[in-house]
């Protein structure tokens, strides 16, 4: 197991290094001068030259990249010239918002997908199966921004069940916190439930068709034991992988929802960095999101290894 973790960690470092090279190169080739953007169009050539020297922009690109890479190793992601703060500080301030809606949306999506996916597989070609199929198609077809605006108008403005924008930290009251993230989490969950439900249903059908299921039925085991102890355990490998990838995607892909609901999260921070051409902020955010996605993928692989004993046996054989 340790050798597997070491191998995956080594691969993760290589991926991070490759992404850092691509990110730095692409942002260096974007037209525009960072010093000009910081000081404005009326800055004097002397002030521009002084700022370029202070930021190291007058050095060759490979030296700039080396200093930036050393900063990444030391968890220094640079400094935003739009906000005037370190990128790490900005992420720490906004990450709880994004993590909150990502976690709650995955809880909602996984609950719906697992329950309906299991029932759809057990009751194949019945009304439950048709309902699950309809939810799959609906979740894949509804645009997040349209659904978000619809929920704001109906549940926020008309029924006044939830606030239409803003974020309330949990330390200011659990009720206000849950209300502020309820609608964004539901919107994200509806977008993710389709693929996850399809995966659960397909995996469950495959598990139910295995030979060990016939043996379990022949032994006279209860339906609960057959479906939830044997079939579900075998069927959850693929859904866990999908959930891990979906969660990683949500952490870095909440731009639309955070913009619609006015949430100060990482997704909206990425949007500001792109709009304002804040190169240092964008570089840091790309590397942070990439590292987080790789970390989540690694944790999911380890979780799958513990859940599926066959994988552990294969690894021991190696």
Characterize the structure shown:
There is one protein chain. The protein has 318 residues and is mainly α. Helix content is 79%, strand content 0%. The protein is built from 15 helices and no strands. The longest helix is centred in the first third of the chain and has 36 residues, at 87-122. The radius of gyration is 24 Å and the shape is globular. The mean pLDDT is 77.
Brief sketch in words of this structure:
This protein has 318 residues and is mainly α. Helix content is 79%, strand content 0%.
User: What class do helices, strands and sheet pairing give?
Assistant: mainly alpha
Q: Any idea what the CATH superfamily of the domain at 94-277 is called?
A: MetI-like
CATH architecture of the domain at 94-277: Orthogonal Bundle
The helix content, as a percent range, equals over 70%
H/E element string? HHHHHHHHHHHHHHH
CATH topology of the domain at 94-277: MetI-like fold
Percent range for β-strand residues = under 5%
Query: How far apart are the termini?
Result: 10 Å
């Amino acid at each position: 197991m340790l050798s597997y973790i070491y191998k995956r960690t080594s691969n993760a470092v290589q991926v991070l290094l490759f992404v850092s090279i691509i990110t730095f190169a692409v942002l260096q080739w974007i037209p525009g001068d960072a010093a000009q953007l910081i000081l404005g169009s009326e800055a004097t050539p002397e002030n521009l030259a002084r700022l370029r020297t202070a930021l190291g922009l007058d050095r060759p690109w490979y030296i700039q990249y080396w200093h930036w890479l050393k900063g990444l190793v030391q968890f220094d992601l640079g400094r935003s010239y739009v906000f005037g703060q370190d990128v790490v500080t900005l992420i720490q301030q906004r990450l709880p918002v994004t993590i909150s809606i990502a976690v709650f949306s995955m809880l909602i999506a996984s609950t719906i997908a697992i329950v309906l996916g299991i029932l759809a597989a057990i009751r194949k070609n019945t009304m439950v199966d048709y309902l699950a199929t309809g939810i799959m198609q609906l979740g894949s077809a509804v645009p997040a921004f349209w659904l978000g605006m619809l929920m704001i108008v109906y549940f926020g403005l008309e029924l006044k069940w939830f606030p239409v924008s803003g974020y309330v930290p949990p330390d200011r009251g659990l009720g206000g916190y849950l209300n502020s993230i309820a609608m964004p989490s539901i919107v994200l969950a509806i977008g993710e439930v389709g693929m996850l439900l399809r995966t659960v249903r397909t995996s469950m059908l495959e598990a139910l068709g295995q030979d060990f299921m016939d043996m379990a039925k022949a032994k006279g085991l209860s339906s609960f034991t057959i479906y939830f102890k044997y079939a579900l355990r075998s069927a959850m490998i693929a859904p866990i992988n999908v959930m891990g990838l979906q969660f990683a995607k949500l952490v870095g892909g909440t731009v639309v929802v955070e913009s619609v609901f006015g949430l100060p999260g990482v997704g909206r921070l990425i949007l500001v960095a792109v709009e304002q051409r804040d190169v240092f902020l964008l570089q840091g955010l790309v590397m942070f999101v990439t590292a987080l996605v790789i970390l989540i993928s690694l944790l999911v692989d380890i979780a799958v290894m513990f859940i599926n004993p066959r994988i552990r046996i294969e690894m021991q054989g190696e």
